[in-house]
Amino acid sequence: MPTKHLLKIEDLHHSFGEEEVLKGISFSLDKGETKVIVGPSGTGKSTILNNIIRLVPPKKGKIYLEDTEITSAKKINEIRQQIGFVFQDFGLFNHLTAKGNIMIGLTKVKKMNKKEAEDLALLELDRVGLKEYADSYPSQLSGGQKQRVGIARALAMQPKLILFDEPTSSLDPELTGEVLKVMRNLAEEGMTMLVVTHEMGFARSVADELIFMEAGKIVEQGNPEKLFTDPDHQRTREFLFQLTDLYGEGEN
Amino acid sequence: MENLELIIDALPYLLEGTLVTIQLTFWSLLIGIVVGLPVAFAQVYGNKVLQGIVAVYERLARSIPLLVMLLLINYGLPRLGLRIPIFTAAVIGIGLRSAAYQSQIYRGAIQSVGGSQMKAARSLGMGKLKAFFYIIAPQAIRIAIPPVANESAIVLKDTSLAFTIGVVELLRQGEYFIATSNEPMVIYLTIAAIYFILTTIVNGGLSLFEKKYQIPGIGIEGGHSDAY
């Protein structure tokens, strides 16, 4: 039994009906690390993230958060408070302002008093560069701003790590930069992050480790620079080249 | 002038009937909410069996004409040994039909809030119930207000059908007065005017409520509630 790892995944399996989407995934994440998972669509990348916080309960395998085995832990709501989640489609609460979106978890889940929650919400909004939008409703924000509120909401819960599920995939290309910049800053500040993305520039420059997945399995994982320039598998080379071609190396 | 006098003479009776109409409306809408909400929950969150049962109820309640339903309750049920006062019979008939329509309104409102917000709420560590009350309900209520206003006006007007099973509401009071005065045109027009005023008040009240709690991006006024 582990470990010093912050998050450890052991032999994770998942299937939707007959279709097996995860066929034995194992990896770990240490405090302060950023790992990026890449791979073709439908290879189960997002399923891993959903399995971790049990929005989709895993079929087989074990996941540990520090010393706690969370795959079968009873108090899932307490575990979810310790793991932030940033959604592809933002998942902002449309009836609440940017500030309100951040406060509701603090007041209703963490039982923080309103004043403290508001102060923290403003602090986190400032951190993602949106302090002046505190009183705006989601419908009044751009996609990039919405996603930054989503990140601030996750941050405010003061999680041990944050999972990012394709955070820029539903954004217009010119808006991805502002979100990636926030994520880059977080990584530099030492936040522990597990990111599923197609942004190769981000993966290459920010990730401590790159995990390349295909068809429910990890094909190769390691230093991003090595995977980009001298991968062990031909398939890794093909995929990364193709994506770099498609999305470019920069971050806009 | 003669007409005006006639109206003034009729008014006390008509207002008495109006009071009964308002009571019918109130209780019918209340049944509509009390039955309609659980039906909506069963449709959205229930298992297959529950969904099947409420689907049958909803289908029936929306397919049988209200008049037929009232006649069945008032003249059919006593044959089975179930005798119900006519006011109650009217409220049950109108209320159960409205519940079927209201359940559709609530179901649509709940579903239109969307699964991704529920997921996001759960990811913060909220239980299902908490997520429903703090995230889904506040939005669903706002979305439901305009159709509920519409449904309320329909129920208000349909209470006039209670006249056929003998409830002395606005329309029947009018009939009584016509029987003695023989002035159907004036009295029916006065009754129509009273219904008009009542529905205007109901719609106006709910639209005030709607405006007061309006949030950009939610509901029809907002225009782009699903902007992403």
UniProtKB/TrEMBL annotation, chain A:
GO terms for cellular component: plasma membrane. Pfam families: ABC_tran. Residues 7-240 form the ABC transporter domain. It is a peripheral membrane protein. CDD domains: ABC_HisP_GlnQ. It comes from the Bacteria. This is Amino acid ABC transporter ATP-binding protein (PAAT family). It comes from Halanaerobium saccharolyticum.
UniProtKB/TrEMBL annotation, chain B:
It holds the Pfam family BPD_transp_1. Its main location: membrane. One of its GO terms (cellular component) is ATP-binding cassette (ABC) transporter complex. It is a multi-pass membrane protein. The chain crosses the membrane at residues 20-40, 60-77, 83-100, 185-209. GO terms for molecular function: transmembrane transporter activity. Signal peptide: none annotated. Residues 18-206 form the ABC transmembrane type-1 domain. It comes from the Bacteria. It is found in: Cell membrane. Belongs to the binding-protein-dependent transport system permease family. This is Amino acid ABC transporter membrane protein 1 (PAAT family). It comes from Halanaerobium saccharolyticum.
